Amino acid sequence: MNSSGSVGISAMKPCCRILISCTNSSFFGYPPRKFTRFLHNLSKLHSDSVQSRRIFGCSCPIDSRRSSFSGSSSNLGQCRAFWSCCNVVGIRGGSVIVNVASDFRSHSTSTVDSNVNDKNFERIYVQGGINVKPLVIERIERAEDLGIEGVSSENGLNLNIEEFKDLTEVENSRKKKEVSEIEKEAWGLLRNSVVNYCGNPVGTVAANDPADKQLLNYDQVFIRDFFPSALAFLLNGEAEIVKNFLLHTLQLQSWEKTVDCYSPGQGLMPASFKVRTVPLDGGEGAFEEVLDPDFGEAAIGRVAPVDSGLWWIILLRAYGKITGDYALQQRVDVQTGIRLILNLCLADGFDMFPTLLVTDGSCMIDRRMGIHGHPLEIQALFYSALRCSREMLTVNDSTKNLVMEVNNRLSALSFHIREYYWVDLKKINEIYRYKTEEYSTDAINKFNIYPDQIPCWLVDWISDDGGYFIGNLQPAHMDFRFFTLGNLWSIISSLGTSRQNEGILNLIEAKWDDLVAQMPLKICFPALEYDEWRIITGSDPKNTPWSYHNGGSWPTLLWQFTLACIKMRRPELARRAIDLAEKRLSVDQWPEYYDTRNGRFIGKQARLHQTWTIAGFLSSKILLNNPEMASLLFWEEDYELLETCVCALNKTRRNKCSRGPARSKVLV
Ligand code: GLC
């Protein structure tokens, strides 16, 4: 896409909406809070004077005169607000910032470069981190050409695809018909779930269960649920829906939102949105389509979707990597969107830790489950989103401080998680012998963890060569439950060291019967039972032991597992899990989740035809068959980030920096 030196609108299909776009770099010179408040006031002004509804609408025909905005640069010193019929997809970023492109993209540690449109994958080398055997893929050919289903590296050995071909041809031709039918069915269902707005695809509904009597909000487009759909479409060469989704949700970000007259921060992304059809004021029989976002103000429990903005940033980066269309992330409005999310996440608070402090249920687990504080899932997504932002943020005078903040936070966050969240046999033994009540800056047991907190199940459960990041860490409290999504994203983003990442997969393999069993994968392990269930979930009848968020099995976690396995050169583990899922998902009509300790039953209240189950399965298959594509979506260790200790104590000399001595442990 061409980036003109102003705000421009291309002749695409019409939507009526309010657009707020900033076109002068000096505007970004405002301190973040002032800038945020300014935008906030501006959006309030609009909501008061222009539109009384809190929803976006589309009804008008293309107004060709709109294109006259393009090239107009006379008033670029101000933030502009348009309320008109136009298409968000056509708004282009100003060159003021676009031209100073960040070079972090080229420093991205995904070693296969990004232009997917370049189909020439004749000879691609995917390098490993220092402690990981390099996977060398020689001469990747298209699966159809070879008549095989995929590439797997059994035993983690370097693999020549020609040798692999002979071994798998017989088995695959046997399976091929069955497999392709299931995939065909999945594609059909995925396409049926697509939601259109003004004639353009903008997302997928959460579930399309034909028998569902109580839709709740499953007919909405959830930001987090759309990720695997986006991935399936992108990997299938269908980028339009993803681009539309990114731009429409960006519009919703800057909209006014209130819960009982209180407004959360400006960068918040909605949990979900719905396309509604409403009668046009004064228009006889005329209707308009409107986008109606939910920022948690209607959600069960009024949970704030902290993860939405993080997923949005991660998807934006994936879109660029897979399509090669970097113009999208360079647009001024998109850059502003990234900055607003970052401002919200990086804002100063009372917190002592680099981890994000959130309420219960602020992510995929969006009900009370005792995950308030600093849950791993949010930290791993936060780390991933920061790494994405580091690649995507345009660097100039007005962003250099933000970029520095991002770098500092990345460095502090990875240290904190690697040092304090990691448990393996050795660490548990250390905790078992901890001294408590240590008042000093040199304390070993910094968080005053009482050894009796080590749960009985853990002592026998932890494998000899495995380990994992615990679910949460607070003063005097470690939540030892294993949360799958957070651990998988720690691998994908290299939040963990390569040894730790290896350890997580070792543990999943060793504890396969607990974490995978009959359906991949447990959302967390173990379930809360008896008094713990009563006190921690508040006696939630949906989260009974081994059901739903409380130890249920969620097939949508499969694509993230696949990505982690490919990264760690263990695709055979992913293959095992996908085979399991494939045997049941279609037969069971693609449920949202499974119940019981082994994942034997379809979940008590599980929706059928759940979109992220379907899309997660499809993405897993495609990723496994295209490891070169997968490599665009994960990160290796960034040694630059580990180099600098940003600790102010170095300068003041009042105290000594505690990171120094611990460093050797962390850099393994
Ligand atoms: C449930 C899940 C949540 C998901 C939503 C839509 O609320 O807990 O993670 O986004 O359903 O599928």
Describe this entry's structure for a reader:
By secondary structure, the protein is α+β, with helices and mostly antiparallel strands. Helix content is 41%, strand content 12%. Helix 10 crosses helix 12, helix 11 (376-392) packs antiparallel against helix 12 and helix 20 runs antiparallel to helix 21 (611-625). It is globular, with a radius of gyration of 25 Å. Residues 1-55, 59-104, 106-165 and 173-177 have low confidence and may be disordered. The protein binds alpha-D-glucopyranose.
Bound molecules: alpha-D-glucopyranose
Q: Counting H and I runs of at least 4 residues, what is the number of helices?
A: 25
> Whole-number average pLDDT?
77
Percent of sequence in beta strands:
5-15%
| Arrangement of strands in the largest sheet | 2-11-10-9
- Characterize the largest beta sheet: strand count, sense, and whether it forms a barrel: 4 strands, antiparallel
Report, as a whole number of angstroms, the end-to-end distance: 43 Å
Unreliable stretches covering 5 or more consecutive residues: 1-55, 59-104, 106-165, 173-177
* Protein structure class: alpha+beta
Determine Rg (CA atoms, Å): 25 Å
Task: Give helix % range.
Answer: 40-55%
Envelope shape:
globular
Quantity of strands, as a count: 17
Overview in brief:
With 668 residues, the chain is α+β, with helices and mostly antiparallel strands.
List the main descriptive attributes of the protein structure presented here:
25 helices; four-stranded antiparallel sheet; disordered N terminus; single chain; binds alpha-D-glucopyranose; alpha+beta; 668 residues; sucrose alpha-glucosidase activity; 17 strands; hydrolase; 12% strand
